What we know:
Elements (H helix, E strand, L loop, with lengths): L9 E2 L8 H18 L3 E7 L2 H10 L4 E3 L5 E3 L3 E3 L2 E6 L3 E6 L4 H6 L13 E7 L3 E9 L18 H41 L3 E6 L22 H11 L2 E2 H13 L5 H5 L7 E3 L2 E3 L2 E5 L12 E9 L1 H4 L3 H4 L7 E8 L2
Parallel strand pairs: 1-5, 9-10
Antiparallel strand pairs: 2-6, 3-6, 4-5, 7-8, 8-9, 10-14, 11-14, 12-13, 15-16
Amino acid sequence: MFNYLEPPNAFYDFERIYSAEQWQKKQKWVADYLAEHQPDIIGFQEVFSTESLKALVTGQGYAYFAVVDQPRVIDDFIYQRPVVAIASRYPIVEVNAVKPNTELAESLGLANDFSFSRKVIRATIEVPHMGHCDCYVVHFKSKRSMLEVDEQDKKRSAEKTIIESLKAQVAGGWGSTIQRGSEATLLMIDMIERREATDHPMILMGDFNNSLADGVLSHLLTNTLRFVSAIDRDAYLAKYCLNDAWDLFQVAQINDSNEIKPASQAEKVTRTPTHYFGAGSSVLDYLLFSCEFDAGYHDSLYQVSDYHTYDRHLINPIFERDGESTDHGIVLVTLTLRS
């Protein structure tokens, strides 16, 4: 949502306040997207004004909306620590904030009071033809350094300030990586335990602030086990593993074509980035699904029939239309019942 905060409140510091015109434009942009694309279930990040967002989505036909946290307010009107939210056209029958296993966190060398940088939503939704499905919305820790240096400190020389900034960037960046990877790990453990207890299908959506391919979050797609026989492994692994919607879309496309194609051919299709920074781009926003949505799984009910990244506001922005939009592409997946 990129700082969704109703004026006259300010985000992060007292000067960052939307004018009435800017706020109206931001709300219209969100409403126009929902009206055009009609997602049945949608997750939001960077929400400050939760009641305002609830009113907006209700007006667009979303009867169900949930948050599990509220932003922090300082000096009466300056907002910090935005939260995630979820809206659905289908009934949300249960909502919880995921709580990390503190005993496990401590055994991993983390603080025993470890917490997610933004609370994770688990909303159990009554999905047509499927029943209860656990939908998780996340916004993992950003890559921004956890350490800051006062560059205006007159007591340090210019060289010393640069050195201290470099040290803070190296150490603080690694600290953020540890936090982000730990959040994904403890969430995945909770999802496995929840799956074992309820057998609910699972959907994980959100801004991961990281590529799934670089190792920090790759365990979210773990599908192998060491030192376990293939018979035992294959019988249970699929049930507890998650799959990238992009990969599921490729599988569904191959299955629908009734042709046997090499895996490398599917990989040649270019995946649209969801974030641009300077001259670079990356995929930071994901939808992960359990096996019930995998066309390659014999007992699956749905398949990913379409995968689309909405990025017009990033690559071809028009100020009047996109001036108060968002800084990420929006991933939209279409699920179709398998025949």
